Amino acid sequence: MHNRETGYERHPGNPQRSGGITIEDRKRTSSRKKDHLLICCDNAVEYGTSGFNDIRLVHNALPECNLNTIDTSARFLGHPLKSPLFIAAMTGGHPDTTEVNRRLACAAERFGIGIGVGSQRAALENPDLEDSFTVVREHAPSAFVCANLGIIQLREHGPEWADRAVEMIDAQALCVHLNPLQEAIQPEGDRNLDGCLDALAHLCDGCRYPVIAKETGSGISAETARKLWSAGVAAIDIGGFGGTNWAAVERERAKTGEQVRLGEHFLEWGIPTAVSLVEVVRTGGPIIATGGLRSGTDMAKAIALGAELCGMALPLLKGAMQGDEALIHTIEELHAQLRVAMFCTGSKTLTELGRARTYITGTTGQILHTEE
Ligand SMILES: Cc1cc2nc3c(=O)[nH]c(=O)nc-3n(C[C@H](O)[C@H](O)[C@H](O)COP(=O)(O)O)c2cc1C
């Protein structure tokens, strides 16, 4: 059995270990974080289609609103935000990632948008790495910040690690990530997910911060969403297929051998984001739509399909890697596109955009039609 409360007791008395985690474990976790960042920036890690190309917002030739006064403000879990754009969880956990998180945090503060940090496992294993996460709160003092922990670490270490992750960055919410495909392909991945739903329910029970369950690129089905709501999560980030593809990232990392072929085989695996969004909206909310959103019109489509926030990772990472100015430019462009899409659907607010009509065509239409 796992000791949810401590996790630490599993390897008592081993001088090589600190809190049940070897020095080698810590180094591996940290260097993996840097690998992911570099691989995502330097390689083609996007794959497939999110389904947003199959969605068309119905044009309104007589919008009866003023483009200059369109209001993109949002509310999420009670927090006011200036726009529905959410900087999805990406990084931290290696000293070289600190500057990227600083740039992302500055942008979050400047634009009044929400931001997630990458998995905090590395800093929970080795507090010397906390700076790469605390930099986010330092530079985004008023932003809606989400902590991040994998569901396997939650099962292994219990609510104590969740609390520490939230406290580390004074977060308003905790994202618990679910990434079975990545774990299966990653050479050092955790293959046993038994007991994870119980661990999540245990955390949510009486938790003093909202817990968001999030996929990282393979999507969430209606069935899984119902289990997550029953476990007590406050929101779901669907993290659908069609953007950053973890089979591709881990294939790149593995370089040679069986894991490369396994990654290759699963490149197509997952629920396209638009499909996952429509499915999960039918089960409840609030929902963050992430996975392959690449423009302000994708954001508008996601809101029209029922999302509250629109998460983006890779496009913002690429901006941040170039520098503060490039990131600001990327976000301004996304917002300009979102505003025009709102204008041309006659939506003065996001609430009105949420009622905008869509045509659902192509494969997305077919999948959703056969679902009904
Ligand atoms: C470099 C990189 C690192 C990521 N690390 C994490 C992570 O630690 N925890 C997590 O929940 N999601 C992580 N993600 C997944 C993103 O939050 C997001 O769900 C996914 O990339 C899909 O969005 P995109 O297509 O806009 O990139 C990471 C994404 C990238 C690009």
Short précis:
The protein is 45% helix and 13% strand.
Question: What are the main properties of this structure?
Answer:
8-stranded parallel barrel, TIM Barrel, alpha/beta, two-stranded antiparallel ribbon, binds flavin mononucleotide, 372 residues
Describe the structure in your own words.
The protein is 45% helix and 13% strand. It is an alpha/beta fold. The chain has a single domain (25-371), classed as TIM Barrel, CATH 3.20.20. The strands form four sheets. An eight-stranded parallel beta barrel has the order 6-7-8-9-10-11-12-13, surrounded by eight helices. Strands 1-2 form a two-stranded antiparallel ribbon. A two-stranded antiparallel ribbon has the order 3-14. α2 runs parallel beside α15, α5 crosses α6 and α10 packs antiparallel against α11 (258-265). The radius of gyration is 20 Å and the shape is globular. Mean pLDDT is 93; it is low at 1-18. Flavin mononucleotide is lined by residues 36-37, 40, 88-91, 118-119, 148, 175, 177, 214, 216-217, 239, 243-244, 290-293, 312-314, 317.
Architecture blueprint of SSEs:
Layout: E1 17-18, E2 21-22, H1 23-42, E3 55-57, E4 74-76, E5 79-81, E6 85-87, H2 98-111, E7 114-116, H3 121-125, H4 131-139, E8 145-150, H5 151-157, H6 159-168, E9 173-178, H7 180-185, H8 196-204, E10 211-215, H9 222-231, E11 235-237, H10 246-254, H11 258-265, H12 273-281, E12 287-290, H13 296-304, E13 309-312, H14 314-322, H15 324-343, H16 350-353, E14 358-360, H17 362-371
Parallel strand pairs: 6-7, 6-13, 7-8, 8-9, 9-10, 10-11, 11-12, 12-13
Antiparallel strand pairs: 1-2, 3-14, 4-5
Helix pairs in contact: 1-10, 2-4, 2-14, 2-15, 5-6, 5-8, 8-9, 10-11, 13-15, 14-15
